[in-house]
Automatic annotation (TrEMBL), chain A:
Protein name: 3'-5'-exoribonuclease family protein
Keywords of the record: Cytoplasm, Exosome
Organism: Klebsormidium nitens (Green alga)
Stored Pfam families: RNase_PH, RNase_PH_C
Keyword Cytoplasm set for record: yes
Gene3D superfamilies per the UniProt record, alphabetical: GHMP Kinase, N-terminal domain (3.30.230.70)
Superkingdom, taxonomy of origin: Eukaryota
A GO BP entry: poly(A)-dependent snoRNA 3'-end processing
UniProtKB/TrEMBL annotation, chain B:
Annotated protein name in UniProt: Ribonuclease II/R family protein
Family: Belongs to the RNR ribonuclease family.
Main subcellular localisation: cytoplasm
Residue ranges occupied by any RNB domain in the UniProt entry: 482-813
Essential cofactor(s): Mg(2+)
Region entry Disordered, spans: 199-218
Cross-referenced Pfam families: OB_Dis3, PIN_4, RNB, Rrp44_CSD1, Rrp44_S1
Domain PIN per the UniProt entry, residue ranges: 53-167
From TrEMBL, chain C:
Name of this chain's protein: Exosome complex component RRP4
Family, as annotated: Belongs to the RRP4 family.
Organism of derivation: Klebsormidium nitens
GO CC aspect terms: cytoplasmic exosome (RNase complex); nuclear exosome (RNase complex)
Subcellular location: Nucleus
Record InterPro entries: Exosome_RNA_bind1/RRP40/RRP4, KH_dom_type_1, KH_dom_type_1_sf, NA-bd_OB-fold, S1_domain, S1_RRP4
Domain S1 motif, residue spans: 92-173
SUPFAM superfamilies: Eukaryotic type KH-domain (KH-domain type I), Nucleic acid-binding proteins
Length: 244, 961, 322
């Protein structure tokens, strides 16, 4: 199948190096300490952060850093077929771990000893690249919660189809069976906190795809930064010229 | 940069899912016109600013008028993306051709991505069907162009054959014309009219060409065929088991008899007669309904069936002339049907009729026009019938204004449609190849029929060649992994006149009494790098094609004949396999390396043979050859013991006049010991390499296998052998080889004949990707080798190029190209190579056939022939000397209406494979020797045919009677 | 315990109006020293004097400060810090807080004060019944639950903060601190509470209720006696309830109006302080908005407009009060 036309357009009309339309909203849930809603095209994700708060199970408490807890889930209505998704299946356990690890790499956990941070990520609609979207949403929610972090964690997937590296695969491209590389990046330091790929790829191609994914991460990070700044500005302005 | 559009689709089997996809609309899509001042110009900006107008085509124009579009007179065409995707969904082949046109910048076809342009995207309205929506999108694109290019010279014309669509376009202010009207307006190119396809959906195009010369008004016309059932009905019928689906294969000798291999029936379904075939053409995927068993028939009298006389009084040109003897099972006409248990139940087989066509397999057909009665006035529209050289294809009615020009020409024609009312399919002319009977034209034709690419190499391909003159550079020598073997005494042995030398050998006696033997293969992959245009072209060509008088190269000439060719006394790069062997031909160790060699002699087979045979010669090279030969004989012996078959093929060799390229003489190809010696080392190299690459790449090695023939496939051979009292054991290749050795007749040729017949039972060996089959299936039956591949002819076979890359990767010299790692693309590659390989063989045989015909044109000879098959009204003979096989009729053609002449009655004894006349005076038995008279006759003008008749002195009385 | 709820999705029109009003509030172009996390902090000309990294910053390479939270950059001499606009309560010594007992432990109560960890209220930091200073005995320890038990709400003051792990210790060694009853708690984001001179505020009639603005974002609304007395009877605590444990209806309504005023302010993201609360209550009275409608988009929009007008009148350039 042709995923990139000779005119250079993908099935949905993007060019190979374009990410999908990105939309984010912050502080969408009032009860949570931080929350964010993120759309990457048709992939829609809600992330919620509680904490840092007292560790709920004292035995898990860490004396020198914060305990990060992450839970990933997919809504029953997130795919074309409505399906009840059991909690704790392999995929969601793996994804929870992946998100937690890439977040832990950014959170300054040593500043928050004996505390716990809960991150809940729910996929409301899945259209490829859920992994990346979850990580981005989690970053935004953490930033909203005022959790100190080294840097934003931006994530983006990239693939390789029809001999072309493609950025930010959607579901159709994702299910083409080509390689699918998800990268999470601390854009400032250009440090990779997550790199996942299941298929084999020649090294030179891999480097091209990785480079593209990293560029995508940076573009997404820039977008998220704008959204955060705007959100912060609104908050600050509304609260008025008052210093705590 | 983009906007978002989302829409809903419900699709996919069983469940209804809501598919939700994004659709981005862009503002950076260019119009592709050089006249435009607002859009950015780039590589794809092709539409000329000087053109009078740009043509914007709709889907049906692209689907049906491809031959017109391919004409060079049509340029500056805008293809909207929506058209391209509709074409892709409906006809892959046309889509490919359209893509080629777009890729050819000189043709100035431009794809306008209207579906993603923010101003030309149209949303499906409520209740609107897809076709209407797409038509609207096309019209929107047209009006957009019109306003976009307003005030500039070229305007835009929508080409559509849908009258309604054209009217709406005019209503919306866009210029629109039918194809026919447009072509008529092109007074500069009147011949374009011939290319206009006659399609059903011409709509209001009353002035169009649909009014046929020989047809009355549609209403009065008789329905000749049953209606094809609709897709929904077919699907339902197939599911219920009422219908059976399969690919239609028409008997090469009788275009009204066809078979459908159906999985649901488990047998082949016979379809007989024009009505039951119901407009299906060879290769179509059809749905068949079985007739009640009492109407079942047997295949008609084998191969000699006369066609139905046509009402027009034109006899079908189907009587079989003699042709070249087939080599293996799949080449033999109707081979598959002979495997059926004919003879039981009165020879009846499941018989059915075509009720619908699931997928058409129309392609372009080469052939000539049937002579027309009456003068074909020049310029007037005529509707002659076209007869394809492929006898499986029905005649095609075309229309032309240049009948006089085309009468004696080989032309190419495409089928457009086949209505129920029309006896023949309707088509249109595409191009002329040349005069009928002309050697060049006929060669061209046979190449075309076998889908062989004879175009010269493109500049992009030639750009991949190293600069000429090329020689081994110091950089090559300096590479640590390239062994310098120029000190070795290497020589090559090839057929006379061979210029693409891809293998050479050396043999050195070692101090320990062993021999070091090297096979050096041209290092083609040093020049053909993966994914370059050169590589892609070679992969597409797959193999060089050898015709009697010419060679169509896989790689450009400089590579084939110079840079890669391991010629004598020049340094060449090679890929070497080097073994150390004991004097009893046991391999002590083997070693693979890229190397530099310098061949000391490029010998021909006769030269090499002469050297070995001449006791006076004792130079080192000759000694090497003798050592090689001695070892080869031992290996050959071992191989035979393992069960390798010594098969035979009726190969012939022409002597060609160097001036006219006409054949001067023909004779059997002589096989010498030298040939066998070289073959042995090549086999050894191939097997060694196969083992090596499979060890490193168990899932993506390109290997070659030869499937074990099924017992049914041997049945004709066994029947024949049994008839002459010989028992063959086909239980294993070893048993077969042994029993073939035992099958000795009275004359020396007898054994060879049996071997030839045995070879015909075999299937073709095929390339495959190792990941697709389990190791036991890798087996090569003919060579009795568990593993085999092709490594030794990279200049002329692409498979070898791939294997070279695999071997180089196995040695860690170069990384394995991505495409070679991928199972799927390897599968496609091996399929493609098998197809090319087979076609190349077919073309080669067709070429020999053609030259045989030319050879016998001016001479009639008598020759000794052997009966290979007995039929109800004659037998088929094989003429070893010329490699010809063809029918000999014993009965005269029955006159129309008259009953068969009782004196001509012959009785066939199937079991003993004999045919005896009623009066018992004449008896012919299979494998008997007869003398036949060979001559060329022209039953119809321009249709020369090789006719075999029994020579007057008839049958020789030898021991088999 | 109700949280301020977002505008109920009722009338589209009202919602649109609210959005518009909010947009006006958010539209100020006043340049604020904002940073996003990960951004380098522009140290300006006096960077060479060396800087100290404060909260919300970290060193990124040599002499380069980087923000670790999104918020406002603050500088006090060489100390540069970034204050997040949202987040858990960060205690300061002397803060008045309202907390809830989560656990009764050895010699201490664990208190939820909306911080990163639970705060501790030591038995030693509590005035025992009887009011006299005396040694805590084992009996006292056994009777801790009689004083405060789980889920009790308590007002207290931050006594000290552990420098190492940030653990917070509270005390109630003043008559005004102690158990809270007969009122309601509203929790808002801590950053909405200004630090004031007086966190125990009695709102004048006609509201006539008392509020405790906990610095941690927990706001207690109860009877006026709470703040008036300046001390409470040891036994009774500060209760609005009569002897029967009942709070009379008028007082309950007044409390609810105040509580909803706090919620309305919080919903709009406006700072919660006594004048603002009073103003919202007055506005609701003026517009004859029922208590239950005070959180509807229509009224919220009115509040937002009023606030915007007020700001306009005062001018954005008003110096920050500290």
């Amino acid at each position: 199948m042709e995923y990139v036309s000779p005119e250079g357009l993908r099935l949905d009309g993007r060019r190979p190096k374009e990410v999908r339309q990105l939309k984010c909203e912050l502080a969408v849930l009032h009860r949570a300490d931080g929350s964010a809603y993120l759309e990457m095209g048709n992939t829609k994700v809600l992330a919620t952060v509680y904490g840092p708060h007292e560790v709920s199970q004292r035995s898990q408490s860490l004396h020198d850093r914060a305990l990060v807890h992450c839970e990933y889930s997919m809504a029953t209505f997130s795919t074309g077929e409505r399906r009840r998704r059991p909690k704790g299946d392999r995929r969601s356990v793996e994804l929870s771990l992946v998100i937690r690890q890439s977040m832990e790499a950014a959170i300054l956990t040593h500043l928050l000893p004996r505390t716990q941070i809960d991150i809940y990520v729910q996929v409301l609609q899945a259209d490829g690249g859920t992994r990346a979207a979850c990580i981005n949403a989690a970053t935004l929610a953490l930033a909203d919660a005022g959790v100190p972090m080294r840097d934003l964690v931006a994530s983006c997937a990239a693939g390789y189809l029809n001999g072309t590296p493609l950025l930010d695969l959607n579901y159709v491209e994702d299910s083409a069976g080509g390689p699918d590389l998800t990268v999470a990046l601390l854009p400032k330091a250009e440090k990779v906190t997550l790199l996942q790929m299941d298929s084999k790829l020649p090294l030179d191609t891999f480097e091209a795809v990785l480079g593209l994914a990293m560029d995508g991460c940076k573009a997404i990070a820039a977008h998220m930064r704008q959204a955060l700044l705007e959100h912060t500005r609104k908050q600050a302005v509304v609260r008025g010229p008052v210093r705590l | 940069m983009y906007q978002q559009k989302q829409f809903f689709k419900k699709t996919r089997g069983g469940k209804i899912l809501k598919v939700h996809r994004e659709h981005y609309l862009r503002d950076d899509i260019v119009c592709g016109s050089l006249a435009c001042t607002t859009c950015a110009h780039g590589d794809s900006t092709v539409l000329s600013s000087e053109a009078a107008q740009y043509l914007l085509i709709d889907t049906n124009v692209a689907l049906h008028q491809m031959d017109l579009l391919e004409n060079a007179a049509i340029a500056d065409v805008i293809v909207p993306e929506v058209v391209l995707s509709e074409v892709q969904a409906r006809n892959k082949a046309i889509h490919g051709r359209l893509r080629l046109l777009v890729a050819d910048k000189s043709r100035r076809f431009f794809v306008f991505s209207n579906e993603h342009h923010k101003d030309t995207f149209v949303k499906t309205e409520k209740g609107e069907i897809v076709n209407d929506r797409n038509d609207r999108a096309i019209r929107r694109a047209t009006t957009w162009y019109q306003s976009h290019l307003a005030g500039k010279t070229p305007d835009v014309l929508l080409l559509t054959n849908d009258a309604d669509n054209a009217r709406r376009a005019r209503d919306e202010g866009a210029a629109a014309q039918t194809v026919y009207a447009y072509v008529q307006s092109r007074t500069d190119k009147p011949e374009l009219l011939d290319f206009v396809a006659r399609t059903g959906d011409t709509g209001g195009e009353a002035a169009g060409p649909s009014a046929e010369g020989d047809a009355g008004p549609q209403a009065k016309r008789r329905m000749l065929y049953a209606e094809h059932k609709g897709m929904a009905e077919l699907t339902a019928g197939l599911q219920k088991g009422l219908f059976h689906q399969g690919k239609l294969r028409v008997n090469r000798f009788n275009c009204f008899e066809a078979y459908v291999g159906s999985q649901s029936v488990g047998k082949e379904i016979l379809i007989q007669g024009r009505e039951d075939l119901n407009r299906a053409v060879d290769g179509d995927v059809v749905a068949v309904e079985l007739l009640p068993p009492e109407q079942w028939k047997g295949p008609e009298g084998g191969i000699f069936r006369e066609h139905d006389e046509e009402e027009e009084g034109v006899a079908e040109n189907a009587e079989e002339g003699a042709g070249l003897a087939p080599e293996i099972a799949e080449d033999a006409p109707g081979a598959a049907l002979e495997n059926l248990d004919i003879g039981k139940e009165g020879g009846r087989v499941p018989t059915g009729r075509v009720v619908g066509i699931i997928k058409r397999n129309w392609r372009n057909y080469a052939g000539s026009l049937e002579p027309m009665k009456g003068p074909g006035g020049s310029g007037a529209m005529a509707h002659p019938l076209f007869v394809s050289v492929d006898r499986r294809v029905p005649k095609i009615r075309i229309q032309t204004r240049q009948l006089a020009n085309l009468a004696d020409k080989r032309i190419i024609v495409a089928i457009d449609k086949w209505d129920r009312t029309s006896r023949y399919p309707e088509g249109h002319y595409i191009k002329t190849l040349g005069d009928i009977g002309d050697r060049a034209t006929e060669s061209e034709l046979l190449l075309m029929e076998n889908d062989i690419n004879t175009r010269p190499f493109s500049q992009a391909v030639l750009n991949c060649l190293p600069p000429l003159p090329w020689s081994v550079s110091d950089a090559d020598v300096a590479k640590p992994w390239r062994a310098d073997l120029r000190n070795l005494r290497v020589c090559s042995v090839d057929p006379i006149g061979c210029r693409d030398i891809d293998d050479a050998l050396h043999c050195t006696a070692l101090p320990n009494g062993n021999f070091e033997i090297g096979v050096h293969i041209a290092d083609v992959t040093n020049f053909v790098h993966p994914e370059t245009p050169l590589d892609l072209e070679a992969a597409d060509r797959g193999t060089s094609v050898y015709l009697v008088e010419r060679r169509i190269d896989m790689l450009p000439k400089p590579l084939t004949e110079d840079i890669c060719s391991l010629r004598a006394d020049v340094d060449r790069l090679a890929f070497s396999v080097i073994w150390e062997m004991t004097p009893s031909a046991d391999i002590v160790k083997s070693h693979y390396t890229k190397s530099i060699i310098r061949s000391s002699a490029a010998l021909s087979y006769p030269e090499a043979q002469a050297r070995m045979d001449d006791p006076h010669m004792s130079d080192p090279l000759t000694e090497d050859l003798r050592n090689l030969n001695r070892l080869a004989k031992i290996m050959r012996q071992r191989r035979t013991e393992r069960g390798a078959l010594t098969l035979a093929s009726p190969e012939v060799k022409f002597e060609i006049d160097t001036e006219t390229h006409n054949p001067l003489d023909v004779g059997m190809y002589q096989i010498r010991e030298a040939n066998q010696m070289i073959e042995e080392y090549m086999l050894l190299a191939n097997v060694s390499v196969a083992e090596k690459i499979l060890k490193h790449f168990p899932s993506c090695s390109l290997l070659r296998r030869h499937p074990v023939p099924t017992p049914q496939m041997f049945e004709p051979l066994l029947r024949t052998a049994a008839a002459v009292g010989i028992e063959l054991d086909v239980g294993s290749s070893k048993a077969l080889a042994d029993s073939l050795d035992r099958a000795q007749g009275s004359d020396p040729y007898f054994n060879k004949l049996i071997r030839i017949l045995a070879t015909r039972c075999m299937t073709q060996a095929v390339y495959f990707c190792s990941g697709e089959l389990s190791p036991p299936e890798y087996h090569h039956y003919g060579l009795a080798s568990p593993l085999y591949t092709h490594f030794t002819s990279p200049i002329r076979r692409y498979a070898d190029v791939v294997v070279h890359r695999l071997l180089a990767a196995a040695l860690n010299l170069t990384p394995l190209p991505e495409r070679t790692r991928d199972k799927k693309s390897m599968h496609d590659l091996s399929d493609g190579l098998n197809y090319r390989h087979r076609n190349a063989q077919m073309a080669g045989r067709a070429s020999v056939e053609l030259h045989t015909l030319i050879f016998f044109k001016d001479r009639a000879v008598d020759a000794e022939a052997r009966i290979v098959k007995v039929r109800s009204n004659g037998f088929i003979v094989f003429v070893p000397k010329y490699g010809i096989e063809g029918p000999v009729y014993l009965t005269k053609k029955p006159d129309k209406g008259a009953g068969p002449d009782p004196n001509d009655d012959f009785v066939v004894d199937e079991e003993h494979q004999t045919i005896t006349s009623k009066d018992k005076r004449q008896t012919y038995k299979v494998l008997d020797t007869v003398t036949v008279h060979i001559e060329v006759q022209e039953p119809q003008p321009h249709r020369p045919k090789l006719i075999l008749t029994l020579a007057s002195d008839s049958k020789e009385q030898d021991g088999f009677a | 315990m109700l949280q301020p709820e977002g505008p109920a999705p009722s009338l589209d029109e009202a919602a649109a109006k609210l959005a518009e009003a909010q947009a006006i509030l958010q539209s100020s172009t006043a340049s604020l020293p904002l940073v996003c996390l990960g951004d380098a902090i522009d140290l300006g000309a006096d960077a060479e004097g060396g800087v100290m990294k404060g909260h919300g910053t970290m060193m990124a390479g040599e002499a380069q400060l980087q923000a670790t939270v999104c918020g406002l950059v603050e500088r006090v001499n060489k100390l540069v810090s970034v204050r997040a606009l949202k987040g858990r309560y960060t205690a300061q010594v002397g803060d008045v807080v309202v907390g809830r007992v989560t656990e009764v432990a050895q010699k201490r109560w664990k208190m939820d004060v909306n911080g990163k960890q639970d705060a501790a209220l030591l038995l030693a930091s509590v005035n025992l019944p009887g009011g006299v200073q005396r040694r805590r005995t084992n009996v006292d320890e056994l009777n801790m639950r009689e004083l405060y038990q789980e889920n009790d709400l308590i007002s207290a003051e931050v006594q000290q903060i552990n420098q190492g792990d940030g653990a917070v210790a509270l005390h109630t060694r003043s008559a005004k601190y102690g158990k809270l009853q007969g009122g309601q708690l509203v929790t808002v984001a801590p950053y909405l509470i200004k630090r004031l001179k007086q966190h125990f505020v009695a709102l004048a009639a006609p509201l006539d209720v008392g509020i405790i603005l906990g610095c941690n974002g927990y706001v207690w609304i109860g009877s006026k006696d709470l703040v008036d007395a300046g001390g409470r009877d040891e036994d009774e605590g500060m209760e609005a309830a009569g002897p029967s444990g009942q709070v009379d209806l008028q007082l309950r309504e007044r409390m609810c109006r105040v509580a909803n005023a706090v919620r309305a302010l919080a919903a709009l993201g406006l700072p919660v302080h006594p004048p603002a609360i009073v103003e919202v209550c007055n506005l609701s009275g003026l517009l004859r908005v029922e208590i239950k409608d005070m959180l509807g988009p229509e009224f919220l929009a009115q509040v937002a407009y009023r606030e915007a007008d007020r700001r306009q009148a005062e001018g954005d350039a008003q110096p920050m009060d500290h």
